[in-house]
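pinging the channel bc i need a second pair of eyes. not urgent but kinda urgent?? the chain im working w is below, pasted from the shared doc
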Amino acid sequence: MNSKIMNGIIGLCIGDALGVPVEFRSRGALSGHPVLDMIGYGTYNQPPGTWSDDSSLTFCLMDSIAECKRIDLFDIADKFKKWLWEGYWTPYGEVFDVGIATKQAIDRLNHELIRPDFAGGQDEYSNGNGSLMRILPLAFLLRKRNIEERVSAITQVSSITHRHIISIIACVIYTEVAINLIDGLDLKTSINEMKLVVNRHFSGHSEIVQFERILNEDLADIKVNDIHSTGYVVHTLEASLWSLLTSVSYKEAVLKSINLGEDTDTTGAVTGGLAGLIYGIESIPDEWVQQIARIDEIVELCRRFENSINI
């Protein structure tokens, strides 16, 4: 199977796995010993090809859509809970990495009688990248709908764990770029088209200023020292788009994003999803693909997901 869904999802998972062993390592440390290949152990003492919560929650979202043939927030929430407490869609049956805001939201789902899209934190400190990292499947599902429907759906799915408008806008930006790439546009055109749509849709919103560099500047002109790679969702989005704009291959883009340091698995995953759409799975080193945990099951999930959304 070689589809755009496979390109994006496998691209995301490999970027995640490449970043797992060096998560939290500083840029300075990585500059002396950069990630150049699929390695293992390191931060979480996991074997090569191990992916983290980024891929797990992406797979949970895909699995829910494949089963329900639509967005069912309660089913997505149930799968998130099953992931956290039962190891569902983990590489080896147990969770070894989970963001604070994501865990708090899933705990809230379990202990409070609450709608899933009210579970995510809404304060300014709840703007980690935990919904951005798993939002890519919605680009495939929503690409033929209008912008109002897309934003509504993205808002609901993001809000299961991240309900602040900054997190939501970041997810919209990423999804819009992905949709444009799926539709065959090149990266620069995809970003420019996204800018028009997002600036128009969120015109006048106070928090849109947080995305000034993405929406009104050329990220490719920004120096590496001015690109941050923390877990803050805006930083992750900027770092990923910058890595893509300053690279010419899947491998270069993903490794560049990871070697920025800090939240390496998520920056790698977010970059890898778009890089997979740009360059295709055939551009990814085959030895990387073959090392990915549960690769055959991931391929089958991509097939089920593709069949369920009829693209």
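so The CA atoms of residues 52 and 230 lie 17 Å apart. and The chain has a mean pLDDT of 96. — does that match what u expected or am i reading it wrong
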